[in-house]
């Protein structure tokens, strides 16, 4: 029995060693004395000075003071006492041993000490700052001074002395003090009034995380608070002014002149079918350049042999500076680089796709101011890029002003600007998509457009929710969305053409109008005047996507087979609609072999292959 008793006693002693009593835990430091002096200004500003006398029980690197900016203040209403949240910004923080100041939505975290030194024993710190209070919007129009003298101290405060100097007379009977943890009602803080000065001391120490607050009920108009800037009005006014300025710039520099379309039944003299894409959409596509096969046939440069399951291209004459443009020669010479006759396998192996890209660049560069062929004005090119940035300004203005007016924190405002900055990438995607809208397939265009619309709606919704949480008025929110959307459309259409560009655009639209609307009798009359009308306008119809319609209109006319096309020997007579479908089948394989790009299997540099560093596949 005695042995069992000894074993139990030893186990109890061991447990006590493992779990020491928290009552004997030594705090890092204690506040031996705290002196607080507050000068209250007539505009509600508080000039606060705090002096701490601390006793460090063991080494610490610093002393941290958390200054609260968000207050949960009791307000008496008809429904009783309710608590409302108010934000009083803290500014001008200074201290004799200041290390750092961090700010957030709840307040400021002030760290004091000595750089590279440990604190121990008795240490003194002083800190001063200003607090701008505001009208509490009391139901009876009265005012109040509410201030927390001690808060967020996880240690014992042995003594506290405070002095509050009011700007003018008040009722001493309306001064109340309170101590204890949140929700406690204690009266351990003395209070006396001497003129306009309120002072007092602790009657007993404050324990960990206990607070000491003071409240002074004041008559109406005691403070003359500075009138806050109406952010809703200023942000809305700034956005509307920006919209007016952009509208004037768009009317002067971005709005395309009205084009008067005359029906054109002749091939334009200055432009070819391959240049339609750039004139209309600023970008040349593959189909634009491939229409040159038909144009070259009309001009006697090549002959197309259609064998049904295969084809051959035969060069009839050379190209030079006088009879062809630079981008034509680049593509033509690439096709016939190995001989005057090229079959589909040789065309595939010639890797013409790389020359096709160079041809498109040469085509776009051929429209410049020096040779009088500039299509788009310099101002519109610059302004469309600038408009992508201007469209972001309402989002940046509203979000920044609403968030900064609430907390006066640059860090918080910048964090809330992230969706607006992401909206800039979405706008850049819109500019790219609109400029390539005629070079993309319909499915690709609508798929990308859907993604951009969804992303833009999500980002605008995030901004709208952020503004709503920070108290934006509904009419200001409507103005924000309206201005942003209008600026967005101004950005898309800020693409003004030169006078020459508008003339070419009118000619192209006139050709399209003629192909789509020409009546059989009118076409017959025009065909009798120009028997080559079908083949001359065929490359333009192909680029405009109207080749089927154009071929259909000549079904009842006796059209001769093009001299540049060798095929359809099995048919008794030449039919344009049948020809186009037969030739289009051959043209499909010409296009596929022209655009063929061989897959890059490996890249070697000085006998070093990238394949050697790739992981081996298991069999």
TrEMBL record:
Source species, domain of life: Bacteria
Residues covered by the Predicted membrane protein YciQ-like C-terminal domain: 444-554
Keywords: Membrane, Signal, Transmembrane, Transmembrane helix
Keyword Transmembrane: yes
Listed transmembrane segments: 233-251, 381-402, 414-433, 445-462, 468-494
Protein name listed in UniProt: DUF2207 domain-containing protein
Residue span, DUF2207 domain: 31-188
Signal sequence segment: 1-25
């Amino acid at each position: 029995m005695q042995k069992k008793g000894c074993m139990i006693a030893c186990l109890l002693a061991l447990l006590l060693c493992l779990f020491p009593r928290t009552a004997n835990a030594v705090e890092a430091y204690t506040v031996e004395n705290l002196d607080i002096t507050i000068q209250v200004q007539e505009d509600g500003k508080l000039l606060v000075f705090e002096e701490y006398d601390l006793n460090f029980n063991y080494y610490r690197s610093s002393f941290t003071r958390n200054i609260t900016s968000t207050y949960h203040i009791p307000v008496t209403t008809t429904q009783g006492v309710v608590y409302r949240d108010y934000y009083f910004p803290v500014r001008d923080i200074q201290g004799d041993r200041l290390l750092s100041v961090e700010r957030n939505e709840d307040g400021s975290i002030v760290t004091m000490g000595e750089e590279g030194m440990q604190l121990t024993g008795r240490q003194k710190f002083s800190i001063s700052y200003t607090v701008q209070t505001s009208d509490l919007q009391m139901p009876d129009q009265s005012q109040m001074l509410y201030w927390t003298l001690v808060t967020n101290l996880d240690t014992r405060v042995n003594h506290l002395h405070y002095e509050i100097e009011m700007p003018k007379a008040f009722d001493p009977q309306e001064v109340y003090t309170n101590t204890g943890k949140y929700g406690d009602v204690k009266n351990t803080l003395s209070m006396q009034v001497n003129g306009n000065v309120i002072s007092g001391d602790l009657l007993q120490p404050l324990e960990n995380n206990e607070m000491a607050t003071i409240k002074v009920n004041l008559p109406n108009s005691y403070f003359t608070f500075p009138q806050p800037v109406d952010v809703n009005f200023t942000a809305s006014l700034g956005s509307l002014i920006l919209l007016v300025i952009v509208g004037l710039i768009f009317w002067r520099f971005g709005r395309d002149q009205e084009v008067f379309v005359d029906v054109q039944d002749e091939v334009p003299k200055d432009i070819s079918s391959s240049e339609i894409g750039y004139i209309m959409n600023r970008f040349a596509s593959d189909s634009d350049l491939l229409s040159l096969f038909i144009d070259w046939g009309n001009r006697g440069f090549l002959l197309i042999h259609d064998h049904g399951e295969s084809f051959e291209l035969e060069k009839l004459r050379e190209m030079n500076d006088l009879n062809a443009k630079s981008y034509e020669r680049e593509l033509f010479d690439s096709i016939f680089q190995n001989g005057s006759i090229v079959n589909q396998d040789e065309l595939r192996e010639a890797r013409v796709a790389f020359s096709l890209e160079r041809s498109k660049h040469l085509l776009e560069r051929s429209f410049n101011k020096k040779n009088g062929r500039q299509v788009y004005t310099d101002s519109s090119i610059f302004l469309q890029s600038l408009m992508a940035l201007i469209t972001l300004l309402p989002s940046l203005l509203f979000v920044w002003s609403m968030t900064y007016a609430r907390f006066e924190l640059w860090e918080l405002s910048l964090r809330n600007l992230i969706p607006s900055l992401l909206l800039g990438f979405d706008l850049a995607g819109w500019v790219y998509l609109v400029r390539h809208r005629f070079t993309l397939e319909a499915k690709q265009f609508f798929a990308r457009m859907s993604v951009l619309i969804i992303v833009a709606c999500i980002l605008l919704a995030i901004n709208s929710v952020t503004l709503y949480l920070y108290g934006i008025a509904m009419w200001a929110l409507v103005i924000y969305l309206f201005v942003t959307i209008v600026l967005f459309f101004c950005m898309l259409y800020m693409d003004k053409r030169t006078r020459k560009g508008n003339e070419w655009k009118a000619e192209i639209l006139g050709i399209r109008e003629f192909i789509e609307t020409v009546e059989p009798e009118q076409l017959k009359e025009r065909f009798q005047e120009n028997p080559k009308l079908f083949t001359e306008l065929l490359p333009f119809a192909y680029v405009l996507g109207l080749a089927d319609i154009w071929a259909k209109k000549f079904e009842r006319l006796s059209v001769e087979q093009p001299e540049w096309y060798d095929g359809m020997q099995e048919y008794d007579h030449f039919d344009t609609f049948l020809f186009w479908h037969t030739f289009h089948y051959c043209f499909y394989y010409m296009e596929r072999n022209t655009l063929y790009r061989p897959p890059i299997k490996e890249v070697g540099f000085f006998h070093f292959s990238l394949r050697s560093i790739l992981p081996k596949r298991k069999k």
